[in-house]
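The authors assume throughout that readers already know how a fold can be written as discrete tokens. The format is easy to grasp once an entry is in front of the reader. For illustration, here is how one protein appears when written out as sequence plus structure tokens:
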Amino acid sequence: MNITKSDLLGIAAKPAQYPEAGPPEIAFAGRSNVGKSSLLNLLTGRKALARVSGSPGKTRTINFYTVNDDAFRIVDLPGYGYAKVSKSVSASWGDMIEAYLKKRDTLVKVVLLADIRHAPSAQDIQMYDWLKSYGLDGIIAATKADKISRNALEKQIALIRKTLGAKDAVIVPVSALKRTGVKELLAEIELALTPGTPEEV
């Protein structure tokens, strides 16, 4: 699959503000400094579709993007886990994400981003547990793969899999800087969007 066209469709902080339900949605979730905006820009071939912020934790909305003339949609969930925001703000983001996971019938899969250099955090584990409970798990993008050696790659992937309890998940190492992992991640997204097609594990 190739993404040839993508545009911002809507911005929401609560379900009443979601765009009208339409084609299937693939959401992206991860810590505020995990490189989510850079990855979305890489996948869509747009330099600034998702704004890369110099201030982690700045995104406080759910951003909806239409892809390939609304063949499907990409949903950018708020980054979580930034230490410099208040507990009340952090809790509100968690409520915002959970409401979307619960209420959006057109959501078919969530890609969880995890920094390949580190073990997943407690909030990463909580997020993946949420995804498993809603049947939305199965794809993990291990970001910043250019920051580690090839020898360390499999070790870190195994650490992510074990920490998250993601035994059967597909883990795709990606690097926005080196522009690697795009084809593999888009192939997994295409599988998730294809009704009746069993996902490769």
Q: What stands out?
A: Strands lie at 6-12, 25-29, 62-67, 72-76, 107-115, 139-143, 170-173. The chain has a mean pLDDT of 87.
